[in-house]
Each structure stands twice: as C-alpha cells, then as structure tokens.
Amino acid sequence: MEEFRFQITEELEDERIDKCISMLIDSLSRSFIQKLIKDGKVQVNGITVKGSYRVKTDDDVLFCLPESVEPDIEPENIPLDILYEDKDVIVVNKPKGMVVHPAAGHYSGTLVNALMHHCGNELSGINGVMRPGIVHRIDMDTTGSVIVCKNDKAHNCIAEQLKEHSITRCYHAICHGVMKEEEGTVNKPIGRHPIDRKKMAVNEKNGKTAVTHYKVLKRFTDYTYIECRLETGRTHQIRVRMASIGHPLLGDEVYSNRKSPFHLTGQTLHAKVLGFQHPETGEYVELDAPLPQYFQHLLEILS
Predict the structure, then answer these.
(1) Residue 282 backbone zone (phi > 0: left; psi -120 to 50: alpha; other: beta)
(2) Domain ranges of the chain
(3) Span 2-65: which CATH code?
(4) Could you read off the pLDDT of 95-150 as tens digits, one per residue?
(5) DSSP percent split of the chain into helix, strand, coil, nearest 5
(6) Which residue in 18, 59, 88, 139 is the catalytic one?
(7) pTM for this one?
(8) For residues 136 and 124, what is the distance between their CA atoms, to the nearest angstrom?
(9) What is the per-residue pLDDT across 44-71, written as a single tens digit (0 to 9) for each?
(10) Is 139 a known active-site residue?
(11) CATH of region 69-164, choose from 1.10.443.10, 3.30.200.20, 3.30.2350.10, 3.30.465.10
C-alpha cells in the first residue's frame, strides 16, 4: 500500500476533496478517488473524511493507494502486420480497434497479447507484466506504426529518443473544413481537461509543451487531408491540436461535435512514418505504414 500526503494551497480552497485529489494526481480517475473516500482511505488533518468535504488552506491530506493486482496476461494467436523485426525491436502496423496494452475492460485482444504469442519471452520487462515491450502507444482507433522493444537495452535507448524528441513521427489525417494555409505549426501546452479528466485540452497553466507541424496534402469540398509531424508526443496531441484551431479530425467523437456522414469508428488518424536510431547498430531506420483500406476508400469517396 502506497501513501500520499500533501498540504492544501490557497488556490485549492473550498474545492471538494475528490476533485482536489484528481487535480493533484491526474493519473487517478474521479470515480476511483471517490471509491477510496467511501472505503475510508482518505484523511484530512488525521480525520477520515466523507465525499462532501471541501478543503481549506493548509489542510493536511493523507490517503492510501492499495496495491494493484495485475491479472495474468495470456498470449493470443492474433495476426500481426509486421513492418520490421530483428532481435532488438519489432515495428507493427496496428489496426483500428486494437488496444495497445491491457487495461481495465481490455485484458484480451490487445497488441501485447499478440506480441506475447509472436515473440514469446523476448520482450523488455521495464514496464511490467501489463506492458511488456511497450515503450509508446497510439489510441485504440488510431492505426499505424508502433515500435516494441525485445530487451531492456533497446527499451532504454528508444525511450531516451522519445524523451529527446529525436524519433520521426509522421501522421496522416482527415479533418473537418477546408484549411486555407498550406502549412503551419501549433505550439500550445496540453494537459488534462479542467472538468472532464478523461479528456485532454489546451492548458496554459498546467499543460506540457506540445508542438505539432502540419501541412495540406489535398483539399476536398468540406474536408482537408493533412500530414502532421510531431516534435512531442502528448496524449491525444493531434486530435486536441486540430480541434483547437477549428479543424477537428473526421470521426473523432471525443474532440468534435461535428457529425460524420460516413460510417466510421473513431478518428481518421494513421501513424504513417516512424523513424528511429537503431539501439544496437546506431543506424537510422525509417518505416512507412501503408494507409488502411478504410482510409484509402474514404479518400477515393472524397475525391
């Protein structure tokens, strides 16, 4: 069991205790925090509190986070579209609808389940049994390139490249509206949405640097086909970015309220190009993931 203790500052005065904790530790959902409160795991000034408690400046908050019990993850014989593989890394073209690693509600059918069958025990263990080999991820309904590491040396090397923003990541997307400019850069910090903690948003106060370069590939009557190159890799970066400038991604049901006339499952976003320095040889490797069939068909319809 892990303990967390912090003191309430003046700007958090009069916030509900569950909201206050979720603002300070954004990796915990509000519903999970409320369960902790209900189970008597949260104290203020040494007294167990109820969910209706509103914090005061200098309150001393203590709560206990139970150790998570990780389920056994089973290998599954799921076909993989492999773009590159050697003894250190494997790059796969992830299909739409596949979750990268197991999580609540998704303990089977994930990329990790497929990789465990394909690679056996040859996956890095740095991220634990739930995420063997996983050094980065893309959303369930985003398709395209994901690099997976087979040993800890490769994992550390790729993770460092991600941290230094030296990995090439180029996405293709279709967005609402006809973009006037040929290219541009959006550079505003991204953080948790101040109200909906499951969403991300432009957050000048608490966000992290997020740089997205975009250029027009083709214009249609009501849509624009674009390429986005990432300098950073924040959660939902492209989806938040394009929505913030009035061009949300077609099919995005989270960051857009515009209706799609097409039968889509999630956003039209594809991780097309992935380039990295090989962890063993030091040579630059670049892979190009072909557009999925639904994406190609959609471009044909729009044309």
Answers:
(1) left
(2) 2-65, 69-164, 170-270+296-302
(3) 3.10.290.10
(4) 999 999 988 777 899 999 999 999 988 999 888 778 899 999 999 999 999 999 99
(5) 20, 30, 50
(6) 139
(7) 0.77
(8) 13
(9) 998 898 767 889 999 998 887 776 556 6
(10) yes
(11) 3.30.2350.10
